[in-house]
Fold this sequence. Notes:
152 residues, mainly alpha, Arc Repressor Mutant, subunit A, three-stranded antiparallel β-sheet, 6 helices, 67% helix, 11% strand, WH-like_DNA-bd_sf, Transcriptional regulator, DNA-binding transcription factor activity, DNA binding
Amino acid sequence: MSKDLVRKIFDKHLEHDCFFDKKMLNVAVESSSLTFNTLPNKTIRLIHFKKEINPSRLGIILGVGKSTITSTIDTLEKNGLVVRNNDPDDMRKQLISLTDAGEDYHFELMDMITERVSSISDSYGMSESDLVEYYDHLSQMVSILNKYIFET
C-alpha cells in the first residue's frame, strides 16, 4: 500500500474532523442551561450510540487520555447527564450510560447540529443532493472499514 496515499487519507480525515468539530459540534444547546464544547458533546453522542461503554474504551475512541476522559465524565455526571454503573461481567470495571436528562440533552444537541448544518448548507448554496452524496460517501467509507475492523 502506498504510504503517500495513506498520508493523504489521514490528512483528509483530519481536515474533515476539524471542520466538523469546529462548525458542527462546538455548539451550545440554547434550550438547556448547559453549554459544552466539542469533547463533552462527542462524549454524549458516543455514549448515546453505544448505550453503555467503559470509560477506558471511550477515551480510546475519542483519542484522549485517562485524566481527560475522567474529568469529562465527572463533569457530565455532576450535571446529571451520565451515570456510572458496575460492569455486570467484571465488577472492577464501570460502564457509563446516559441518564434521561442526558438523552434529552443528546436530542437537543442533535437538533442544534441539524439546524447548524441546514444553515451552513443554505448559506453556501449546498443542495440536498450534495448532502445525500456526502452521506452516501460516509456510508461507503464505514462499509469499507467494517470489512476489516469490526469494533468501533
